[in-house]
Amino acid sequence: MKIIDARVIVSSPGRNLVTLKIETEDGISGIGDATLNGRELAVVAYLQDHVVPCLIGRDARRIEDIWQYLYRGAYWRRGPVTMTAIAAVDVALWDIKAKAAGMPLYQLLGGRSREGALAYGHADGRNLEEALASVEKYRKAGYRAIRVQCGLPDIEKVYGVHVGEGPYEPAQRGLPEEERWSTPAYMRFVPTLFAAVRENFGEEVALLHDVHHRLTPNEAARVGKDLEPYRLFFMEDATPAENQEGFRLIRRATTTPLATGEVFNSVWDAKALITEQLIDYVRATIVHAGGISHMRTIASLAGLYGVRTGFHGATDLSPVTLGAAIHFDTWLPNFGIQEYMAHAEETMQVFSHGHRFEDGYLIVSEAPGHGVEIDEAKAALYPYQPAYLPVNRLEDGTVWDW
After folding, report:
1. CATH numbers and ranges of domains, the chain
2. Among this protein's residues, is 138 annotated catalytic?
3. How far apart are CA 279 and CA 287, in angstroms?
4. Which distant-in-sequence residues (6+ apart) come within 8 Å of 326 by Cβ?
5. Exposed site from 137, 213, 321, 359, fewest CB < 10 Å?
6. Is there a catalytic annotation at residue 212?
7. Considering only CA atoms, which of 18, 20, 27 is closest in space to residue 51?
8. Residues of the chain with pLDDT under 70
9. What are the pLDDT digits (tens) for 107-160?
10. Is beta strand 281-282 parallel, antiparallel or unpaired with respect to 258-260?
11. Of 226, 282, 284, 283, which is closest to residue 255 (Cα–Cα)?
């Protein structure tokens, strides 16, 4: 089953998305997501100039060999650009192999471990009243788990909170916007937010919160302690994970479950956090951590230490990654939860899929492969538009973690 063609499709149906399509001599094709939010064209060049020429003529069935060839053979390993490119190839090859076998991808991984993957949605509000109304909306939509973010007094823009009438979307057209941040204001307000949510919605709904790397380890420890009465499902990215030792301090101070890793690119990024049991959920995602093949390594290591997965699932990942992730979630024994944000209508016109949301769970597609296809003609209607994530500054002007 030789690869005869591989091409990169860049499109912007609501947001910039990069897709790799691989075709074989047998007439079977597969697609993988290659989107790296704000740095999309770097991955495009890596694929077009360095990876695609090396794929032509190779046996598409040799997924592991091709993964090792692209990772170990390049000498320059890891990093978001490299691992996103490898992931695109890997997912496309798994798609091809499952289609050739005539079965959904999760069956190739080992079959079901569950009937559906618990998913959490994103409730947010510019103030407490709006946040509570948003939680109510998600509850009525059937969500059993909800991430809650809220605006802060006297801070114009806050991570995770929508501006205007549409859903929250951090990437903006043009050069990066700059936002202002106050750590003391956040630390004062966030316990108030979750006290109000619990008072209004009781104990049964699972609550999550994203700190988004903005606290020092000691600050994160304090917030985790303050949130203990509200029994969060997890607190995400409490501090930048480059300093993995910082999680030891947080772990000693609080029993609030900890999740991190959406920016991880390999098992090495997560190794100490997992083996020392400093986190409860690893959030590395298929598209940025080397594809299905490498996520199996990360998830298998995590399973040995009682750590579960909590895949990143924002709309900066295409429907291809979500579809592949649901297959992975359906199979994985130590699955925890799946982040889920609905894509824009334009996106879904370009990408067809067979998975669905039902009663709080994502239900996997039963079509052969990962169940997501791209309409290249429709994709061509949405040309790439430069867009960036914001840059964050403290009130004194210091550049801070966004």
Report:
1. 3-103 (3.30.390.10), 108-367 (3.20.20.120)
2. no
3. 21
4. 117, 338, 355, 362, 363, 364, 365
5. 359
6. yes
7. 20
8. 166
9. 999 999 999 999 999 999 999 999 999 999 999 999 999 999 999 988 888 988
10. parallel
11. 226
